[in-house]
Amino acid sequence: MHYRFKTTTSIILVLIALIISQIPQLEAQEPRVYAFVSTDSPIYTPGSELIAEVFIYPQVNFSFTATIRFTTNIQDLSIPDITIEIPPISKTRFLKINSSPVRLPSDLVDGTYFLNMEIWFDNRIIATDTVEFWIRGGPPSGIMPMILFVWHNHQAPNYYYGLDFFAHWHIRHFYSDGLGIYYKLSDDYDGIEWNDMGTYYLHYYLLKKYERVKVNHHYSPSLIYQLYVASKLGFTLRTPEGERIDVSPDSPLAKVIMDFFNGLKELADQGRVYLMTSCFAHTILGYYIDRYDVSNLIKYDIELGMEWTEKLLVKTNAIWTPEMAWSDKLIPIYLDLGLSITVLDGTHHFPGASGDKDTIWEPYVIKGPLDRELIVFFRDQVVSDRDIGFTNTDWHDPRNADRDARTLYYNIYNIHSFKNYDRRPIHVIAADGENWMLFAPSVANGALFLDRIYQYIDKLALLGIMESGTFEDALRVSPPRRVLNSIPSTSWLGGWGKWTAEISDQIKAWELMDEAMGKYKSLEYYYETTDYSKYKALLRTTPDFNETVIALIHAMDSDYWWREFFSMSYINNWLSVFHGYANKLVKVDVSVAFSRGVLVKGIDNEVKITIKNINPYTLRSTKILISIEKLNQTILTVNLREGEYVTTSLTVKPGMNIDNVSITVMLTNPASKVYDRETYFTVYNKIFKAYNPVDFNVTLVIMTLEDVIVFDKYHKPGTFIFLIRISASEPPEYDVPIRYVIKIGRESYVGDTIVTSGNRYALIEYSVELKDYGKYEYSVFIEPLVDLIPDNNNITGFIEVTKYEQGIRIQALTPVAVIIVVIVIAAILLIKRRI
């Protein structure tokens, strides 16, 4: 035991010694940082001021002091060293260090220069980087380009009918996109603890940061509507650490949304932001209007979007055409609504446009009815997509984001160099406002890219090299002077396949949309809404029609038709709502009558169908298709005013193996055709049971008032009572109406009776007075409408009236006894006949 104790103690002492020996090494761990250098502008003029900027990302969890040193290839240009305390990564993940401004020599020639940065610690370089910058004597071609940034921020409706939210991207991209390394709402708001920011808010935040930057912004109405709903009803957030937070409408976080709206209004009032509107959701307008010719629907979709833009932001005359999905049929719609500015694509729209053309660096006019003018700017598709929209694949490294921002302005400068402009070129950069950040390897570095392009254009404007502007600024310095005759129908992609034909489900969905549009066009036809004012009045006075339009507008949102985000469930949900309300707007009363009372198998049935128009409009040129399942159908073409009806008959013979038969009535009209395919409203569909036929026979007992049963042919004059029994081979499942005809001599009598469901018999009593001698022929004929074997439905005979009488007299024969006798005799007769 003593030996073991000594051994254990020795081991512990050795371990302690090893741990102690490591402590100095831990304290002496090599400081590490990731860092890169940049400048406050990618381009300078001789004699201007330059600021070196160092982006530092701590890599170790302790602080240390380091020195930043700069060198350049510009002779006699010196930037003072900077000594800084670099905090531990647990305290901050990023810091930006700016040098003091240094003035560049005034005699610098045009060229590319470099700035080198080194971070020194303990006489060692722990980080180094180099950045290039240009020196230019002035703006390209001696005239300053104006850059129009046109940002399209959009969010599809993230809800089903009834504001049933299935996603909350509008909330996430407003509050929490993982930008916390650079931007936090808590930096912009006192009293709010929120260590993150979303891309939608980021745009507003950076515009406040860079006061010389001007942009043109589109926040889609469906996006701002959903943000508005969130601010009024509350919402749920998750912190960057994953904690769930329920935000009430009274929370300061919820109020940020309304501050955001108000802040954009203020920037618009200052001329810093030109706000745009669009249709409510995100519809490929040109495709829909060309495919379906639904100008009223498109017009209302846009007007609805305008209402929300005006309610939450401003009234504007500029419209973002979603997906740049153009058709010239949009021109009168835009102009009617007071919209006079839009942006299209310089690669896919401009080359095919006809008219007086020069370059895409100027606005154009295309005229509509009454000589009104729509102003069209054409974006530089190459710069917009190559340098911004799809340049983000390497933004896992923040240095790459900065360098891409610098490249953007180098490319623009080169584009406008060596030109013979007679006025300032307008360079339109139009792209999504958020997606190129959200789909980057690092959303935060995407946000850094936006920050850098804003900082750079802010400084470039100060240097007189190029500047940003709004539509209003552009039209002031370069008013349109050329007129286009037409612009081709296409999108920014040069076609429609991305939304229509890349996967089989898209093709199926368009078939569903074709059907819905056929119904919608039918409604417009019936309500005669050719005039937009009548259309608007119908929306106000007919809630069900308004609901059909709202549902269709939601179903048309192109985000859910885009190949990568295609959602059949979303489309089906809203189309289902559309059909539900649309079907309520086309109503008829339908009555069905069967010649045999019910539908009977194995024999011909005449089906009489009456259709009455109960709609508040005339069923003009309406084709009515009446179909009796797999048995017969007919088509009627009618013009039925309200309250009028039409009747038709069809003959059907259900097979013995058919238990149920459906009768369907459908309506269509000339407006319902989509690609030569008619769309029908199903206004009636009911299933009727087909019943088995029943074999009936008839038996007869003739009696006199003296209770004599006549079973031969001779009898004295008097009153004769015909007791008729109608018998079914088995109890029917339904009431069977039966017509019977009794003929005696020259007299005849027709009557009706019923063999009720579950019973086998019906009894008929008929009295006739025969006074004269002679021979009276009689017959009893029954006509059950469901009898497959009519051979036993007839009895004939005669009565010879003489002064002699033969028969059986029954004294005090009660009615019950009579019935019993009749049944017995009938049974005997039936047995005889079968023998």
UniProtKB/TrEMBL annotation:
GO terms for molecular function: hydrolase activity. SUPFAM superfamilies: Glycoside hydrolase/deacetylase. It comes from the Archaea. Keywords: Carbohydrate metabolism, Hydrolase, Membrane, Transmembrane, Transmembrane helix. It holds the Pfam family Glyco_hydro_57. Residues 149-482 form the Glycoside hydrolase family 57 N-terminal domain. The chain crosses the membrane at residues 812-831. One of its GO terms (biological process) is carbohydrate metabolic process. Coiled coil: none annotated. Belongs to the glycosyl hydrolase 57 family. This is Glycoside hydrolase. It comes from Staphylothermus marinus.
